Amino acid sequence: DLFESFNGDIDLQKKDINGKGFDVVSSGLENNGIIGRTDIDARIFNNNTITIDMFGNCFYRDEQYKMVTHARVFSLSPLFDGLNNVNGQYIVSQFKYLPTVYNYSNMCSFNKIKDDKLSLPIQTDEENNPIVDTECKYHPDGYIPDFDFMAKYIKAIEKIVIADVVRYKDAIILKTKEVVA
After folding, report:
1. Bridge partners, residue 106, by sequence
2. Whole-angstrom distance, CA of residue 115 vs CA of residue 91
3. Structure pTM?
4. DSSP-derived secondary structure letter, 178
5. 50-71: per-residue pLDDT in tens?
6. Cα angle 89, 133, 95; round to 5
């Protein structure tokens, strides 16, 4: 109910990668699935979308891109306004189970996941009752995803990671001073 799926229209190959134009997305984890850039005439996918490959690897895309077709990568375009880097990362985290289910002999596709449920926080009122959208834009029962909570959650995680990195670097600096002294 949240996304529609799109595929590439041209089977971009390694020979088409020329360092110009748009990123090309293929399957794999390395470089978030980006294998290079091309200006070959092929379908351009919007930014603020999500790609999922045949192995279930999922990435938020904040820039326009092109995709290979032979690696069975598909693009999820939101049917709602406001997908951005922060809530996109939150939603992608909900797809992290996909690589545990899909592999080369059981490839991920939109048809296989289109009815999967995502566990997203929903908007509630002051009494913690769900706020319901009568048009049921996001959910059949009218629940509205709480994109503000998603953003705050991701930003809190980022702060924790940064604090851990600072502590780590401080420990290295202290150890270096001990060794040098």
Report:
1. 103
2. 15
3. 0.83
4. H
5. 999 999 999 999 999 999 998 8
6. 25
